[in-house]
Write a structure and sequence with these properties.
The complex is a heterotrimer. By secondary structure, chain A is of the alpha+beta class. Helices cover 23% and strands 34% of the residues of chain A. Chain A contains eight helices and 20 strands. Chain B has one domain: MetI-like (MetI-like fold, Orthogonal Bundle). Classes of the chains: A alpha+beta, B mainly alpha, C mainly alpha.
Chain lengths: 360, 277, 297
C-alpha cells in the first residue's frame, strides 16, 4: 500500500458515510489498482452503491478521504472528475440522438468537431452500434441502451469507469452475453472498472478482484478464487455460492458436528477447544457413496430432496434434523430417468479435509 | 456549489414576485381593515376596530348568513346532481369515460359571465322561455336564480373530484359488496360511499370556497334582497369607495374560509395516513 | 344478486350468498341513472347551445331565431373599442403566459430539487394563491397598486394575472419534474456539465412539454378571467370579460352571444393545443397526462 495510494486508481482512506443516524459506509479502507476490473459485491443496502457514488462525486464522505490517481477529491465536483458512470437505468438523454448522447461529454470539454465525430464513431464501433447513430434512445432495446450508456462514458477516456449494476434490467441470456462483452472491452481499453453488483456469479465471472460488503463494511477482499475457495466468514461463504454450513465445536484439531460425528478439518491454530464454529464445504467438493476416496472425511445421511437443474442434479442430504448438505451430481453419466439416489436412501458423503473451511 | 444551494437560488425570482405581489398586498389589506376613510374618501391607516364592528352589525348579519346559506345550498345541490353523474361516468362510462368527462368540462370553457348571461337570456322576463310560453314568470331576480347560477357555475368542481375518487376504486369491491350486502343500496352505502368520501369533501370545498365570495351570480341573477358578501365587498372597493370596510369584510370572509380549509386539509392528511376520516 | 332477491332496505346485511353467474339487472342497466345523466347533459348544454345559436341570429330577438346571420360578429369586429378589448385580452394573456411560465418553472425546479426552510416557506406561499378566492385577490391587488401609486391599466392587470398564474405553472411542472428523476441530471454532471448547463441542456428539454402545457393553460385562464381583471383594470382598453360584464349590466345585447362564442373557441383551442401539442412533437404521452404529471417522456 503506497502513501496516499499514489500508484493506485482509487484509494479510500477511513471513509465513512452517514445519512442521519444510519451508517451506510463504515470506515472503508481500500485501494484499487490501475487497469483492474474491481467489483463491489453485496446484498441491497450494504453500502456498495453509496461507495460508488462517493467516487463519482454525487455523495461526499462524512469522514475520511478519497483519492483518485493519488489526488484528493473532496473539493472536486462530479463534472470536474476524470471519472464516468454507467447508471443502472442507463439515464440516456431522450431528447438527443444516440450520437449526440455519446458526444455530450466531449462537447462539454470543448473538443473539436472533427475529433468529436471521430471518437464518437470509434466508441459506437466498440459497442457495435455504429449503425444506429441517428436513432433516439426510445427506439432501442434495453441491451442497446446499455451499450450506448457504456459508449457515452468510455468515449471520454476516463481514468476510472463506474458501473452501477448496469446489467440488472436485462434478461439472463443477454446479461451473460454482456458480461463477456464488458470484460472484453475492459481488457481492450485498459481502463479501471469499478463495478457494483449483488449478483455473485456476475462478480466471479468478470472481476480481477472482489470486495464483499455487508452493512457498510468490507467482509473480504480478494480474487474470485480466494473469495470462493477461502471465504473468511460465514457471511461471505453464504453469500457466494452454496456454502453448506454445519454448526460444530472445536475439539483437538478436529470439529465435532452437532450430530456427533468428528471431522478432520483445517482448524486454525487459535481456535480454542469448545469454541463454536461453522464448517463449510462447497457442494461440488462433496463425493457421494462410491465416489469417496480414501482419506476423505465421511458422514452419513438420508436423501431428502433431489433437484434437477439441467447440467446437474442437486442432492440434498440430511445428516440430522436441521443439518443438511447439498451435493452436486454432474449429469454427464446419468440421465434423469436413471437416478441413483431416491428420496429416503441412506448415503455416505465425503470430502477432503482441506476442502472443509472452519468459519467463525 | 452543492445541489441544495444551486436549486434554492431558483426559488428567488418566483418567490420574490409572490412575496411582493401576493403576500404584501394581503398585509396591506389586513392593515387597512383597521383604518377608516377621511372626508375625501381616502383610506387612512389606523388601529380601530370600527370596521369589524360594522361587519357584525345587525344590518349586515343577514348578508353574511345569506352568503353562507347560498353557498351551502349550492354545495348540496351540486352534490345531489354531481354525484350521480360522476358515479355514472366512473362506473358505467367504459370507453366513453374520457368523452363524457370532456363533455362535462366543455361548457366550463364558456366564460362564467356568458354562462350566467345565458340563463338571463333563457329565463329573463324577456327571455326565451317566457317568449315561448307567452308568460311572464319571474325566474330571474330571485334567490333561486342566484343559487342556480352558482350551481351552474361550479358544478364541474364537484363532479371531477368525485369522479376521480370513484374511478380509483377497485371495481371488484363493488362485486364483493353485491355478494355480501344483498342489494344495490346497501352496497352503495357500505362500499361505494365510504370510498368516495374524500372526493365528496374535496368537491365540497372546491365549490364552497368560491361560492361564498361570489358576486357575479347575485349581481346578474338576484334582486336587491339577494345581496351576498361578495357584492358588498365589491361595492366597497368600487362604488362606495370605503376600502377599510371592504378590507374588513374580506378579512372576515377569508378567516371563515380558512377554518374550513384547515379542517379539510386535516381530514385529507388523516386519510393519506390511512386513518379514518 | 338477481332481481329475485328484493333489494329492500330491510334485507339483512352481511348475509353471505353464493355468487351468481348472471349479473343483476339493477347494476347493469341503470335506467334511471342513465336518464338522469342524459337530462343533466341536456340542461348543461342548452344554455351554451342557445348562446352559440343566437349568436348567428339575424334579428336581435332572444326569443325567436329568425335566420342565419353574421351581423353580431360583424358588430363585434367592427367596433373599435371591442376590437381594442380583444387585443388587450390577447396581449394580457400572452404576456402573462410568458412571464408566469418562466417564474413558475424556476420555482418548480427550486421546490423539487432543494430542501431548506426557504423551500418549505416558498411551497406554502405558492399554494395559497390557488385557494384564495378571486375577490380577495382582486381587492388586495387593487389596494397594492393604489398604495404604490401605480395607475390602473393593462399593466396592472398583467401584474395581477401573473401573480395568480405562477402557482398553476409550478404545480404542473413540479409533477413532471418529480417523475423525471435525478439520474439523468447526475449523468449530465458525470459527463462534465455544470449544474447550470445540466439544467439548460438536459432538464429543460425534458420538461418542456409540461412547460408548454402549463403555459397554454395559463393563457386560457387569463383570457377568460373576470374578477381579477375587474378590480385591476383601467378605463380603457378593458379586457373582454369586463366589457361583457358592462354590457350585461346595462341590458342584454345579442353581440354578447357573438363575443361569448368567439371566446369559447379561443379557450377550447388553447386547451386543445395544450393537450395535443406534446403528441405532435413526437412524444408518446398525451397532453392530459403531462398536465396531470404522470409519465415522463
Amino acid at each position: 500500500m503506497s502513501e496516499n495510494g499514489a500508484g493506485s486508481a482509487i484509494h479510500f482512506e477511513a471513509v465513512t458515510k452517514r445519512f442521519g443516524d444510519a451508517v451506510a459506509v463504515d470506515d472503508l479502507n481500500l485501494e484499487i489498482q490501475r487497469g483492474e476490473f474491481f467489483s463491489l459485491l453485496g446484498p441491497s443496502g450494504c453500502g456498495k452503491t453509496t461507495t460508488l457514488r462517493m467516487v463519482g462525486g454525487f455523495e461526499q464522505p462524512s469522514e475520511g478521504r478519497i483519492f483518485l490517481e493519488g489526488e484528493p477529491v473532496e473539493t472536486v465536483p462530479p463534472y470536474e472528475r476524470n471519472v464516468n458512470t454507467v447508471f443502472q437505468s442507463y439515464a440516456l438523454f431522450e431528447h438527443l440522438s444516440i450520437e449526440d448522447n455519446v458526444a455530450f461529454g466531449l462537447k462539454r470539454r470543448k473538443v473539436g468537431k472533427d475529433e468529436i465525430r471521430r471518437r464518437v464513431a470509434e466508441a459506437l464501433e466498440l459497442v457495435e452500434l455504429h449503425e444506429r447513430g441517428d436513432a433516439r434512445p426510445r427506439e432501442l432495446s434495453g441491451g442497446q441502451k446499455q451499450r450506448v450508456a457504456l459508449a457515452r462514458a468510455l468515449v471520454n477516456r476516463p481514468s476510472v469507469l463506474l458501473l452501477d449494476e448496469p446489467l440488472g434490467a436485462l434478461d439472463l441470456k443477454l446479461r451473460k452475453q454482456m458480461q463477456v462483452e464488458l470484460k472484453g472491452i475492459q481488457r481492450e481499453v485498459g481502463i479501471t472498472f469499478l463495478y457494483v453488483t449483488h449478483d455473485q456469479e456476475e462478480a466471479l465471472a468478470m472481476s480481477d478482484r472482489i470486495a464483499v460488503m455487508d452493512a457498510g463494511v468490507i467482509k473480504q477482499c480478494g480474487t474470485p478464487e480466494e473469495i470462493y475457495e477461502h471465504p473468511v466468514g460465514p457471511f461471505v461463504a453464504g453469500f457466494i455460492g452454496v456454502s453448506n454450513l454445519l454448526p460444530g465445536v472445536c475439539e483437538n484439531g478436529s470439529i465435532r458436528l452437532a450430530d456427533g460425528s468428528l471431522c478432520d478439518a483445517q482448524v486454525p491454530a487459535d481456535c480454542a477447544a469448545g469454541a463454536d464454529v461453522q464448517l463449510s464445504v462447497r457442494p461440488e467438493k462433496i463425493a457421494i457413496d462410491d465416489e469417496i476416496e480414501p482419506g476423505m472425511v465421511t458422514v452419513d445421511g438420508t436423501v431428502v430432496e433431489r433437484v434437477y437443474v439441467g447440467t446437474s442434479t442437486q442432492i440434498i442430504v440430511e445428516l440430522a434434523p436441521g443439518m443438511r448438505l447439498m451435493a452436486l451430481e454432474q449429469n454427464w453419466v446419468r440421465a434423469r430417468s436413471d437416478d441413483r439416489w431416491e428420496i429416503g436412501n441412506r448415503v455416505k458423503l465425503g470430502w477432503r479435509p482441506e476442502h472443509a473451511l472452519v468459519l467463525r | 456549489m452543492n445541489e441544495n444551494r444551486f436549486a434554492s437560488s431558483f426559488l428567488v425570482p418566483g418567490g420574490l414576485w409572490l412575496l411582493a405581489l401576493f403576500v404584501v398586498p394581503l398585509i396591506f389589506l389586513l392593515a387597512i381593515s383597521f383604518g377608516h376613510t377621511d372626508d375625501l374618501g381616502e383610506a387612512i391607516y389606523g388601529f380601530e376596530l370600527t370596521n369589524y364592528e360594522r361587519v357584525f352589525d345587525a344590518d349586515l348579519i343577514p348578508v353574511l348568513l345569506r352568503s353562507v346559506g347560498f353557498a351551502l345550498a349550492t354545495v348540496v345541490i351540486c352534490l345531489l346532481i354531481g354525484y350521480p353523474v360522476a358515479y355514472y361516468i366512473a362506473i358505467y362510462g367504459g370507453r366513453w369515460k374520457n368523452v363524457l368527462l370532456a363533455l362535462v368540462v366543455l361548457p366550463f370553457f364558456v366564460n362564467y359571465l356568458i354562462r350566467t348571461y345565458a340563463w338571463i337570456a333563457m329565463l329573463g322576463d324577456d327571455g326565451l322561455v317566457n317568449g315561448l310560453f307567452d308568460s311572464s314568470i319571474r325566474f330571474i331576480n330571485t334567490p333561486y336564480a342566484v343559487i342556480g347560477g352558482l350551481v351552474y357555475g361550479f358544478l364541474a368542481f364537484m363532479i371531477l373530484p368525485i369522479f376521480a375518487s370513484l374511478d380509483n376504486m377497485d371495481r371488484s369491491l363493488i362485486e364483493a359488496g353485491k355478494d355480501l350486502y344483498g342489494g344495490p343500496w346497501q352496497t352503495f352505502r357500505h362500499v361505494t360511499l365510504p370510498h368516495s368520501i374524500q372526493g365528496v369533501l374535496a368537491g365540497s370545498v372546491l365549490v364552497f370556497l368560491p361560492a361564498v365570495g361570489d358576486f357575479v351570480s347575485a349581481s346578474l341573477l338576484g334582486g336587491p334582497e339577494d345581496v351576498m358578501v361578495g357584492n358588498l365587498i365589491q361595492q366597497q372597493f368600487q362604488a362606495s369607495d370605503n376600502w377599510p370596510f371592504g378590507a374588513a369584510l374580506t378579512v372576515v370572509m377569508m378567516a371563515f374560509l380558512l377554518i374550513w380549509m384547515s379542517l379539510y386539509l386535516r381530514s385529507a392528511a388523516r386519510e393519506a395516513r390511512g386513518e379514518a376520516v | 344478486m338477481s332481481t329475485e332477491v328484493a333489494p329492500s332496505p330491510g334485507a339483512p346485511t352481511g348475509t353471505a350468498r353464493p355468487a351468481r353467474t348472471k349479473p343483476p339487472k339493477d347494476f347493469d342497466r341503470p335506467r334511471f341513472l342513465k336518464a338522469f345523466v342524459g337530462l343533466f347533459f341536456l340542461v348543461l348544454f342548452v344554455p351554451i347551445v342557445l348562446v352559440i345559436l343566437f349568436s348567428f341570429n339575424s334579428s336581435r330577438s332572444l326569443q325567436n331565431f329568425e335566420g342565419f346571420s353574421l351581423r353580431w360578429y360583424q358588430e363585434f369586429f367592427e367596433s373599435e373599442s371591442l376590437r381594442d378589448s380583444l387585443i388587450a385580452s390577447v396581449e394580457i394573456a400572452l404576456i402573462t403566459m410568458v412571464v408566469a411560465t418562466v417564474l413558475g418553472t424556476l420555482l418548480a425546479y427550486g421546490l423539487v430539487r432543494s430542501r431548506t426552510r426557504w423551500s418549505n416557506a416558498a411551497n406554502v406561499m405558492m399554494l395559497v394563491p390557488l385557494v384564495t378566492p378571486e375577490i380577495v385577490a382582486g381587492a388586495s391587488a387593487l389596494l397594492l397598486f393604489t398604495q404604490i401609486g401605480l395607475e390602473l391599466s393593462i399593466t396592472t392587470i398583467i401584474l395581477a394575472h401573473i401573480t395568480f398564474s405562477i402557482s398553476y405553472v409550478t404545480v404542473v411542472v413540479r409533477a413532471r419534474l418529480a417523475s423525471l428523476g435525478r439520474e439523468v441530471e447526475s449523468a449530465a454532471m458525470d459527463l462534465g456539465a455544470t449544474r447550470w448547463q445540466t439544467f439548460r441542456l438536459v432538464t429543460l428539454p425534458a420538461l418542456w412539454p409540461a412547460v408548454l402545457a402549463a403555459g397554454l393553460l395559463v393563457f386560457a385562464l387569463s383570457f377568460d378571467d373576470f374578477v381579477l381583471s375587474f378590480f385591476t383594470t383601467g378605463e380603457s382598453p378593458q379586457p373582454l370579460p369586463v366589457r361583457i360584464w358592462t354590457q350585461i349590466r346595462f341590458g342584454v345585447r345579442p353581440t354578447i352571444n357573438a363575443i361569448g362564442t368567439f371566446m369559447l373557441v379561443i379557450s377550447v383551442l388553447s386547451i386543445g393545443l395544450a393537450l395535443l401539442l406534446p403528441r405532435l412533437f413526437g412524444r408518446k404521452e398525451s397532453g392530459l397526462k403531462v398536465l396531470l404529471g404522470r409519465e415522463a417522456a
